Amino acid sequence: MRNIYFYFLLFFMYCVIGYIAEVLFVYAGEKKWVNRGFLIGPYLPIYGFGALLITFLLTGYYNDPFVVFIFSLIICSIIEYVTSVILEKIFKRRWWDYSWRKYHVNGRVCLFNSIFFGFGGLICIYIASPIFYAFLDSISFEKQKIASIILGILLIVDLIISNIDAYRVSNIAGHLEEILNEYTKNRNIKLNKIRTRLFDAFPYIAKNERVIKRLKSLKKDFSKRKKLQ
Fold it and tell me: What are 191-201's pLDDT values in tens digits?
């Protein structure tokens, strides 16, 4: 009988796969590497939760790919929508917006992404899960337990640090341009304290990519000045 450690490791593996897929998707469109996660590490829990739900709820429909596709689309779209709402409630800012795409729901989900979720569900049921199940079944209970504890601690620490970063970023995002204008006047603001990782992953936080590019440029200038001192 499979245990909680088995499913946690399965969850984590899908978190990593989701991260890789996101990074490659962004690179294909923008030709640049971006850490797409809310967390610092190379894993996206939203994909882990989605994959587990698809595995638990849709494996019974293995012989009906159309059902798997449609319900994967629906399940993952709901997860993305709820995640968007939760992040906005916690940090008082919208983290992404798909209003510029056709067929969206309040800018939180869009048909374009949802279709990819549907295909992702097919990959999950017919390719990934059978491979992951076979791999995890080959690992002893003790090794599953040890790996789960280590990765669980890693996720908790990452979650704490990332939430602190997110609060800082969300607090300055609304008046980032004013901060940069002030810096150009007196140069006393420590720009190295302003992290850009989350701005890269979720540029909609600042709603102004020009300001984000300006921040990066001024941070480079700040670093050069510090080295010359």
Answer: 666 777 888 88
Distance CA 43, CA 159 (A): 11
Of 103, 126, 158, the position where a domain reaches its end is: 158
Does 41 share its domain with 111?
A: yes
**Mean of pLDDT values over 102-110:** 94
In this structure, the number of other CB atoms found within 10 A of the CB of residue 1 comes to: 3
Structure tokens given for 195: 């992290």
Q: How far apart are the first and last CA of the chain?
A: 63
Note down the domain range covering 190: 174-228
Q: What is the crossing angle of helices 141-173 and 4-30, to 10°?
A: 40
A 10 A CB-CB count for 120 gives 23
Percentage of the chain exceeding pLDDT 90:
61
| Phi and psi, residue 64, nearest 5° | -130, 80
Whole-angstrom distance, CA of residue 119 vs CA of residue 123: 6
C-alpha span between 187 and 167 (Å, rounded): 24
Q: What is d(CA 161, CA 70) in angstroms, rounded to the nearest whole number?
A: 36
The answer to whether residues 127 and 215 belong to one domain is no
Between CA 101 and CA 28 the distance in angstroms is 18
On whether both 217 and 151 belong to a single domain, the answer is no
